[in-house]
Design goal:
mainly alpha; MetI-like fold; 2 domains; 15 helices; 74% helix
């Protein structure tokens, strides 16, 4: 119980620090969203002082208000789900933009990351258990795929399966001509979205499975030399039980710790992949926010990523304490 109490306290303090830093960073940067928005309005026509004052009030960038008051108001707006107005997609609220892009990223990048982790750890455990067999020879090929630049692998898949063979669409998360009104809740739309997501998901799996496989294989080789494995073999336990209960469970602990960080950053999406495939996820939204100096949108995206990373690490800490009892007692 002491272990879980300490972890909860640690993550609460970390959450407060992360949110406070998310509040301060945009204010330490030169310029502000209101100035950028006013400059864009001036390109379209005359901007009156009343319009300037209203823009500052709307975007919460008044210079006369003390920083401490802005900090309190920021917490109040955040707790009410108000993350501001996007300059790039004015007058759309940041929460609506993130809510529209987040499901695409979670479903695609999340499922692809989980599949990559399961395949890598599973095949790596077998490769370490059966050293020298054909399974062990998969390590060099998957390592080569991991070393290929991410964007280059995506372009190869597009050129091969979309342009040459025309098996899959080139860009987009769904067929905009078949669904001109946008995403809808229907089996036809889900099937079309899955069809458009196959190549992006395959890019993620091929690029990341090699790391999980190699790490798990090396940990299996190290674990198989431990005394408790030798004892289990001397007791005459079945090889499958030794593989699953003794060897794989202990060898997977470092991979689980790394998976928690990877799973947390799933919400950040894959900027390169989403740019290549024009996929409507968080990564593409973040790229638009950075290129257009949309501070409110950037701040909202960074906040969501921070919360997700902390939540994923907290859940994995709980799982880690369950798998390895030593973590609960060494506090």
């Amino acid at each position: 119980m002491k272990f879980y109490a300490r972890r909860i306290a640690f993550y609460l303090v970390t959450l407060w620090a992360a949110i406070s830093l998310n509040f301060l960073l945009p204010r330490l940067m030169p310029g502000n969203p209101a100035d950028i928005f006013i400059a864009k309005m001036q390109q379209r026509g005359e901007v009156t002082p009343t319009m300037v004052r209203n823009i500052h009030l709307m975007l919460g960038s008044g210079d006369d208000e003390p920083v401490w008051n802005q900090y309190i108001e920021y917490w109040g707006r955040m707790l009410h789900g108000d993350l501001g107005i996007s300059v790039t997609n004015y007058p759309a609220p940041v929460t609506e933009l993130i809510a529209g892009a987040l499901p695409w990223t979670i479903v695609l990048v999340g499922l692809a990351t989980v599949i990559s982790f399961i395949l890598g750890v599973g095949i790596g455990a077998v490769a370490g258990w059966r050293r020298g067999t054909w399974v062990d020879h998969l390590v060099p090929s998957t390592t080569v795929l991991q070393s290929i630049p991410y964007f280059w692998l995506a372009l190869i898949l597009v050129a091969t399966f979309s342009v040459a063979l025309q098996w899959f669409p080139i860009v987009g998360g769904y067929d905009v001509f078949a669904f001109p009104g946008g995403p809808e809740w229907s089996w036809t739309f889900f099937g079309d979205a899955i069809y458009h997501g196959i190549l992006p998901a395959l890019t993620i799996v091929l690029s990341s499975v090699g790391g999980w496989l190699l790490g798990m294989r090396n940990m299996m080789v190290s674990t198989l030399s431990e005394d408790y494995i030798v004892t289990a073999e001397a007791k005459g336990l079945r090889p499958r039980r030794i593989l699953t209960t003794y060897a794989s469970r202990n060898a997977a602990i470092p991979s689980i710790a790394g998976f928690s960080i990877t799973l947390g950053f799933v919400v950040a999406g894959s900027i390169v992949m989403e740019r290549v495939f024009s996929y409507p996820g968080i990564g593409k939204l973040m790229f638009q926010a950075v290129t257009n100096n949309d501070f409110a949108l950037m701040q909202g995206i960074f906040l969501v990523i921070t919360l997700t990373v902390l939540a994923a690490n907290f859940l994995m800490d709980l799982v880690y304490g369950f798998i390895d009892p030593r973590a609960r007692h060494n506090v």
